[in-house]
Design a protein that fits this description.
With 953 residues, this protein is of the alpha+beta class. 39% of the residues lie in helices and 22% in strands. The protein is built from 26 helices and 31 strands. The N and C termini lie far apart (117 Å). 42% of the residues are buried.
């Protein structure tokens, strides 16, 4: 059977048993911050097992796309070495939600394997949970007995297994239960029974039947579940290997089409299926081995990357994006080193994969508005080009590092340099080292990475005066009142100055320090929200009476459990002593603007998913009193109509005056909120704060999965928010730009700043609407100042785009008009020059050409002077013009005129005062000007008299 037939037969079998076939969940779990990638078929049913969700069916079957790379389940290091490890694989599964249980699951599994697919029964083994007295777990004798009673398996092939292999748990608490695994003995003589669960490729697990019957409430306590569930998972690639009579997953038709595509693209020798055990470790054998390893790695990694990028992931330097970047660079390095591919090639293999699996997973073609193949190809090609720039140099550096390895170990400094300078993930360096029989000093590498992170943090916003090394010595600050108060009393516990924490004495005057108090209402910079500003005052003897305010807080930062109030003592009349009672007061207007902007940021995140699609993922944010700045995944600039829709969407939610709910819950409990959005890669504490706009959090947590909840914004957030969206007032987007590959940035304003931007946009719109008429009237210089005002203004981004288009059209019109005007002016100038020359007198053999050329530029006058000199054997010329209120005078003398004593500079100096200016120049060419156009006739007459007088003297 082909792999496609095997997959379909599995699904058809369970449809015949009353199951509903459901689609695969995405491999990128956007709504589950606890997962890097979907790594099992049960992930999409977690809410059912946790009791917080339900389905319209009680029996389900599917083929689930899975990735195991990074995190707890990580097969990356084993891919390529053996016959059965993959980063991407399909998991065939069937489920019962409180319907059938162990008997049906065991009977149907045996029926499919032996009755439908005809697998040799004597090769199959079944395991059951042997119990664990240490934690009070009884053996699952029910499952063992069922294997004997509802199947005809050889009873000696029913084997007990320990807790590690045969007891499944979702987490430290929650649903759990025993499992029964089905293994197949692929040895030639069927002698592999003793190697069940021994990680032997000749005796492999092909199906796991999990019986979810307990709820773990603590490490010691298990309670029976009122509804029992079945969760099974079968490795698709492994069952294909068995049914196609192969010894390796990579020899099945799951992979052979990709190997053919790789061979065609790279020109490498045909895949031979060699493993390490087949190679002598040197020479041609080793080269052939590494080529086959490369085939396996490239094919596997291509599948992983294509599905992850299709489902919304983007290569980056953090979280799942970094895992994907590591996988891609690993594949590229094998292609470069063993297939000699010096140009992008991985991207060219996406289309063959889409052809192979597009019918099973239509999203391979249909995602991203039907252009998914192009989308994935572009992302992979860009990554290949970027890494390719440093790959060859990195390989050379690795060779040098290998030569200077100490005790067969690559120095940590070299591993760090490869990562920091050449983009080599450390696991890639480890892999290359293992190929050379070396290891890597990971401890030193990690120490250097930690040091680099500390340096980056230290230079990222906090003065060197606040040394990160002292954080552990600082007392904690109770900042719980920051959400409800803007002024509270507290005790000064000490201050940080010059890298030291001072627990006694006076705060120094006029120096930047950080005050530490036992409690605060100030918000310390965190989660994208800037720290508060304000004052700290000494308390008077009577309540509410204060001495002269002396300490100005310019910033507030949080380090661990301590809040630092950064600023300086500004009053010489004021002394502040450690241990004193103080009053902390936040700048209320700034706090109000920050809260408006922060809630608007959540609305913007919500709007982006509504307008641009669910693949939008937050990549960072900045919330300060002036604006909200939001970075998110999106591969192209946002169109003007989309920007307008996003802004209008936010404004509608503001007008709806939706309530803003907040609640602190355990991180575990928060997962029951099915619409929760989290920034993947963020480390969340055991207790988290959830912010919901429009929906009560308690109701969401206590209601089964409901599509209606998708109409709300729910996020982890420790920031400060308004109580209802109407308090935001107004919202406009004022900026949109790209900040990295696949990352866009939006800037928005709220409240009065937003209103100011709207008014400024309206004013500019009126000015530019009127500009066309001004240009037609001859005010050609009006365009430049308006363009500059548009560039400098803060206005809605959609208005800016529209006005830029208007100005571009006006500029085109102006150029067209200037071209026609220039042509007309050239003809008029030529006619005027001809008239001046025909009327010009000749005195002593020198032709005197003097006159005015209206509305000409200075360069046009100089050209005209040259033309006259070319048309006459000997001439003395003076031309005048007025353009834009500025008078220009140009004089030119031929060589014969200069020989007769005529000097152009002298003439300009003589007549320039008549037009309110001055000038000068060389004997043959000079220029001057002024700002009095009324003096031009007198200047022309004076020039004529001066020239004739010189020639007749």
């Amino acid at each position: 059977m082909t792999s496609a037939q095997i997959r379909q037969q599995f699904l058809d079998f369970f449809v015949g048993k009353g199951h509903t076939v459901v689609g695969s969940a995405p491999v990128v779990p956007h709504d589950d911050p606890t997962l890097l990638f979907t790594n099992a078929g049960m992930n999409q049913f977690k809410d059912v097992f946790l009791g917080s969700g339900s389905r319209t069916y009680s029996r389900a079957a599917d083929t689930q796309k899975c990735i195991r790379a990074g995190g707890k389940h990580n097969d990356l290091d084993d891919v390529g070495k053996d016959t059965y490890h993959h980063t991407f694989f399909e998991m065939l599964g069937n489920w019962s939600f409180g319907d059938y249980f162990k008997e049906e699951a065991i009977r149907w599994a045996w029926e499919l394997l032996t009755g439908v697919w005809g697998i040799d029964k004597s090769r199959l083994y079944a395991t059951y949970f042997e119990g664990d007295a240490a934690i009070g777990l009884e053996p699952d004798l029910e499952a063992a007995d069922l294997w004997k009673s509802v199947t005809d398996i050889d009873p000696s092939h029913i084997i007990p297994g320990d807790r590690k292999d045969n007891f499944w748990e979702m987490g430290d608490t929650g649903p759990c239960g025993p499992c029964s695994e089905i293994h197949i003995d692929l040895t030639a003589d069927k002698s592999g029974g003793s190697r069940v669960n021994a990680d032997d490729p000749s005796v492999i697990e092909i199906w796991n039947l999990v019986f979810i019957q307990f709820n773990r409430v603590s490490a010691e306590a298990l309670h029976p579940l009122p509804a029992k569930h079945v969760d099974t998972g079968m490795g698709f690639e492994r069952i294909c290997t068995v049914l196609q009579g192969k010894l390796s997953n990579y020899d099945t038709d799951v992979f052979t089409p990709l190997f053919e595509a790789i061979q065609k693209r790279t020109g490498a020798p045909v895949y031979g299926g060699l493993l390490e055990s087949d190679s002598q470790g040197a020479g041609d054998d080793h080269d052939a081995l590494m080529r086959d390893v490369s085939y396996r790695i490239i094919a596997d990694h291509l599948r992983c990357l294509t599905f992850a990028l299709t489902d919304g992931a983007v290569p980056s330097n953090e979280g799942r994006g970094y895992v994907l970047r590591r996988i891609l660079r690993r594949a590229v390095r094998y292609g470069r080193q063993y297939f000699k591919m010096t140009e992008p090639f991985l991207c060219d293999l996406v289309e063959p994969l889409a052809m192979q699996l597009g019918d099973v997973f239509p999203e391979l073609r249909q995602a991203n508005q039907g252009k998914n193949v192009e989308h994935v190809v572009e992302l992979i090609r860009d990554e290949e080009v970027s890494f390719g720039r440093t790959l060859d140099r990195g390989i050379k550096l690795f060779e040098l590092a290998a030569e200077r390895a100490v005790d067969s170990r690559i120095l940590g400094e070299d591993a760090f340099s490869l990562h920091d300078t050449f983009g080599f993930p450390v696991d890639l360096t480890e892999l290359m080292a293992r190929e050379r029989g070396l290891s890597v000093d990971i401890a030193k590498y990690e120490a250097l990475m930690d040091e680099a992170r500390r340096r980056a943090q230290a230079t990222g916003g906090t003065s060197d005066a606040f040394n990160l090394n002292i954080v552990d010595t600082l007392p904690p600050t109770d900042d719980s009142s920051k959400y409800v108060e803007t002024s509270i009393p507290a005790r000064l516990m000490g201050y940080v100055h010059a890298g030291h924490f001072c627990e006694e004495g006076d705060v120094p005057l006029g120096e930047t320090v950080a005050l530490v108090t036992d409690a605060t209402c100030f918000y310390g910079e965190q989660g994208g929200q800037v720290g508060d500003t304000g004052t700290i005052e000494a308390r008077g003897e009577s309540p509410g009476a204060f001495d002269v305010p002396g300490f100005r807080v310019s910033d507030t930062k949080r380090f661990g459990e301590t809040v630092l109030h950064i600023g300086e003592l500004v009053s010489s009349e004021f002394s502040l002593v450690v241990g004193a009672e103080v009053q902390l007061t936040v700048d209320a207007p700034q706090r109000e603007q920050i809260t408006q902007n922060h809630t608007a940021t959540h609305l913007l995140n919500w709007a982006l998913r509504e307008v641009l699609g669910p693949a939008v993922d937050q990549k960072g944010s900045l919330v300060d009193p002036e604006k909200t700045r939001f970075d998110f995944s999106h591969k192209k600039p946002i169109a003007t109509d989309e920007l307008e829709s996003i802004g209008q969407w936010v404004e509608r939610k503001i007008a709806d005056n939706l309530p803003v709910h907040t609640k602190e819950v355990t991180e575990q409990a928060s997962r029951e909120i099915t619409t929760l959005r989290a920034v993947f890669g963020e480390k969340y504490p055991d207790r988290v704060r959830v912010v919901s706009i429009g929906a009560d959090i308690d109701k969401m947590m206590n209601t089964p999965k409901d599509a209606n909840w998708m109409a709300y914004s729910v996020e982890y957030c420790g920031g400060i928010h308004v109580q209802s969206t109407g308090e935001i007032g107004r919202f406009v987007l004022t900026g949109e730009e790209g900040v990295a590959k696949g990352i866009r940035r939006l800037v928005g304003l709220t409240g009065e700043r937003a209103s100011d931007a709207v008014r400024a946009g309206a004013t500019l719109t009126q000015e530019i609407d009127a500009l066309a008429g001004r240009i037609k009237k001859g005010e050609r210089d009006a365009l430049g100042p308006v363009q500059q005002r548009l560039a400098d203004s803060v206005i809605p981004i959609s208005v800016r785009h529209r006005l830029r288009e208007q100005l571009a059209d006006l500029q085109k019109q102006l150029k067209k008009s200037e071209k026609a005007s220039s042509s007309s002016f050239a003809q008029e100038t030529s006619d005027r020059l001809d008239a001046l020359m025909s009327d010009a007198p000749t005195v002593g053999g020198i032709t005197i050409v003097v006159g005015e050329l209206p509305d000409a530029h200075g360069d046009a006058l100089r050209t005209a002077v040259d033309r006259i000199r070319q048309k006459t054997e000997a001439s003395a010329v003076l031309l005048a013009t007025c353009n834009g209120g500025r008078v220009t005078l140009v004089a030119g003398m031929s060589k014969a005129a200069v020989d007769r004593g005529l000097r152009a500079g002298d003439l300009i100096r003589e007549i320039a005062p008549l037009v309110g200016g001055k000038g000068g120049g060389r004997p043959d060419m000079a220029q001057g000007g002024g700002d009095d156009a009324s003096g031009i006739p007198e200047a022309v007459a004076a020039s004529n008299a001066w020239l004739q007088g010189k020639l007749t003297a």
